[in-house]
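Hey,
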Amino acid sequence: MAAKIFIPFYSRTGTIEALARAVAEGAEAEGAEVRLRRARELIGHDIMSSVPGWKESAEAMNARYPAPTAEDAVWADGIVFGTPTRFGSVSSELKAYIDGLGGLWVKGALNGKAGAAFTGSATPHGGNESTIISMFNPMAHLGLIIVPTGFADGAMFKGAGTPYGPSVVSGNPPSGPTPEELDVARFQGRRIAKVAGALRALNG
């Protein structure tokens, strides 16, 4: 049976969305079934409307992807979290979703599943590595088996991504992921699908 991979992400401009889709492509290339879900904004439309394009972009992505649920996490064999950097850490939108998984944590419902993360920033020193590493903390609390990218594929030697997980340096205004950054994300998808499938077989 194919692995089930859940990708909850938050994207504001579409950059992290593009990485999420590349992770999904990689997982699907390994035969995995994938769910892509976008975390929702925590602020009102009045504030969103004050930033050009934010409200429109959010509405378009929300039409493409349902909001993530606890059931999605239970369904999955592997979970790959995606977030832009926020001062070197996870965005509040995705963190709110993770914080809502407390009921599953109490039950140990996610123990033994594979976990990974990806991120993006506007500048080379915008906090990509620290953001991914910060995601390892809640993954450990939830009982996930953390799966970094490492330097386990040729894509990792093209100057894109980190050994902890894929990342984007998008610029400002954002130009989106480069082909090399997308290659790292596809590798993460392949890797998480293989590991998640193996863990499911091991756990019965």
